[in-house]
Amino acid sequence: MTATRATAGDNLRHDNGSWRLMLLVSVPALVAACLTIDGLLRLLPADMWWRALVAADFTDPRQLLYRHAFLPRVAISLLAGAALGLAGTILQQVLRNPLAEPTTVGTNAGASVALTIATLYAPWMLESGREWIAIAGGAATTLAVFGLARGRSFSPIAIIIAGLVISLTCSSASALLMAANREYSAELFIWQSGSLVQNGNATVLKLAPWLLLSAGAAFLLSRQLRLLDLSDESAASLGASPISTRLSGLGIAVALSGIVVAAVGVIGFLALAAPALVKLAGARTLRQRMIWASLAGAVLLWFTDRLVQILPFASEIPAGTATAFLGAPLLFLLLPRMRITPDRDRAMSPVARRRNGWAWLVPGLVVTAVAVWAALAMGRGSGGWHWAAWGELVELLPLRAPRVAVALSAGAMLAVAGTMMQRMTGNPMAAPEVLGISGGAALGVLLLFVSLSTFNRPALLAAGLMGAVVSLLLISPTGNRNALAPDRLLLAGVAVATMASAFSAVVLAGGDPRLDTLIAWLSGSTYTATVNDAFTAALTAILLLAIVPLTARWLEILPLGEAASLCLGLGLTRVRLVLLALISVPTAVATLVIGPLSFVGLMAPHMARMLGFQRARPQLFASAILGGLILLCADWAGRMLIFPWQIPAGLLAALVGGPYFLVLLWKRRQ
Hints:
The chain is mainly alpha-helical.
């Protein structure tokens, strides 16, 4: 009787799971079908659909659009979505990681930057097909991620952090390449954002065989992949080779994601959403997840693509951008469900102890003064390099001085904020940019940008500050759930930054005439710096440097942990609120005057610590000097490298900061 009841209960749960899975796939499929039919009827009468499909009249532009644009776009959305759903399922099974997908492990970014480099500098490589270049680039970055995570036993957090930092670095490199090749920037931007726009059947005919072959290989490998649910020892005792199985599964997943990037660009987070949703809906076995995730991915991308075509924007939002709005909130929902072995952060760079760290601040100030003078006086013109004499310098000051002041002040503020965050959280990888505070400030500014036709600097500052505070409120509950706060804070911050990036792409697709200024600002630029901006940034930086020494005792105690802090009489709630306020305000101001893209808040505290500034107070001032120098030099180099064009300072700083972050990860694994 008991066995009968158990069997009946299992069957009931299976039936409920099947119904949930069917609803998950059928509801968006039905809506997408309705939107597709509506679009077809707007394009062509129903009685002409079949005739136009088998024998299109080339003199009728409607039939040409139907045959060579509309139908291939529907087909490519289904094929790409299915490929990404299957790739995400395989990666999550291979890595035993519910957050693994081609975007979070760096595969998509590697494929994208490889194709960008080939398109700009070696177009002859594309003659044999884009797929091989994309697969090679994706494989290279994926292997780099695993190399970085190996020292921490391939823990989920280590893999995701390494993958996301590699993705950010590759994105910065792509943006720099596009800035240096402006004539191709528009086309590359649309492709990198994941555009499903088609011009014929060629892409569909290329993608379909790849998908069929990869899917067949995946299902043939499914038995070995299923054994990865066990420990490596148990799987080996059953005759499986865990290493070979993982490599084979990774090869299939990289191939699937690479061919999708080659076909339509980067479609972010769909490979995370589809497997997660089908698992929540009741898909238990690996085969079930592979089948239903492929169906869900196809339907979700089809639905998303149809939806973006009816939104009231001046230009169409790329499908890859739209899927990011789904993936980032889902990342928040999945973080509490992750089961991760605690791992203590270790020092990631050698530190030379110095008894008198203050003495080294004087040479730092001298170097800063020399750098300011060089940035003001040295430049490049039609006649080559030129050092301005005093009379010329007076004429150039109104143009160069605001930019120098803004870069120096913003760098100092971000560096001090990064130092406080690293000491407050005990996390040597914390920074305003990494934890999403800069992204939240940017999101606040963007919301104001689309809400009002006119606004002033105080309104922008208030919007940026509100965005920074809201982002802190979003990530703080996630980070305080357990002892893994530092790592979870990083992932929650990445989710905030992703939402800000996706929203900025939506704004860019809106066709606003003010977009030129917005694009420069989003890249981290001082192009539009004014005297008022310089005054605001400098005043905020001076006030910050005057206040933060008062928090030195807190910053010395907090890295010891909550228990030690409480024993030493520290009121953690009050202290954290004060520190968060001191972090949010300068971050918002720095983001307002120079944009959200920079790794200065990460690099400067580590550089100060490597120079021997270990105590809180000298480290704060040393970080401020180094941060100001980094952004000042980046701004000057951005003005000079491709003169008469300019590269945003934040973009150059991010391109340097990404590899630096990876070096820290490498040292951490040892």
